[in-house]
Amino acid sequence: MDFSSVPCTSTSRQQRIVGGQDSIRGQTTYIASLMRRGGHFCGASILNEKWFLTAGHCACNGLKKPVRPSQIKAIVGLYKISEFNRNQIENADANSYEVTIQAIIFHPDYACNQPYNDIALLEASKYIYFDQHVRPICIASNHDSSAFVEGKTAIVSGWGWNQESQQDGDKSDTLQRAIVDVFRNEDCESFYRDGNRPRAIAKTQLCAGKRTGGVDSCWADSGGPLVTGNDVLIGIVSTGIGCARPGFPGIYTRVSEYTSWISEVVRK
């Protein structure tokens, strides 16, 4: 097994989403749905044949304690959740399949009750089979400067809620994707101050969304990928205030800040 492709540099090759649209089937081959008790609850990105990358809080329960690896299933090659459920019942051929998890590795500085260092690796219990529907993603290098992403657009994907109110909205059946703007951390802090909800954006985080709101990740998109137009993973859906509110972009874990840690874990 070759781990040398993780990470790759930015020159090598991109919470239902609010304000997004249906992705094209086979367009987002690196995303996985994390399911617990048969339902989707978070997203993840495929790094290689054995590892997924997600948000740390996706591996915590309501008591803010780590869950057991056996409680999480990763579904790869998925487009419509209903298709996977139907294929499981009918035992029909399908592009999507389930991968069980044998280990959860949290970043050593992460705790379930805090928003920083919100990143975790999930080790698959068997090799992930790659085909046209299932492919790994490159991650942004720790040599990439902030200028590589800030001031540009990126793409966020997931099966999360299509609006903040879970009473009025619903989780998406079809994988969604949305184009968002990536902001400088200083600008993002300014937005939050202007909205009377000041917060510090760490260098290990980045902000993305729309200044005027309307497009954002939302509940159950957590852990999912934020990628550049040429499919380099730059962010993990992490936190924020509500979904798609004006002046409150989503806050993501900045993947490039964790390149060394990711490489150290997956190459053991």
Automatic annotation (TrEMBL):
PROSITE patterns, A to Z: TRYPSIN_DOM, TRYPSIN_HIS
Entry keywords, A to Z: Disulfide bond, Hydrolase, Protease, Secreted, Serine protease, Signal, Zymogen
Principal localisation: secreted
GO terms for biological process, alphabetical: proteolysis
InterPro entries tied to this protein: Peptidase_S1_PA (IPR009003), Peptidase_S1_PA_chymotrypsin (IPR043504), Peptidase_S1A (IPR001314), Trypsin_dom (IPR001254), TRYPSIN_HIS (IPR018114)
Subcellular location: Secreted
GO cellular component terms given for this protein: extracellular region
A Pfam match: Trypsin
Molecular-function annotations in GO: serine-type endopeptidase activity
PANTHER family: ACROSIN-RELATED, HYALIN
Similarity section: Belongs to the peptidase S1 family. CLIP subfamily.
Protein name per its UniProtKB record: Uncharacterized protein
Organism: Aedes aegypti (Yellowfever mosquito)
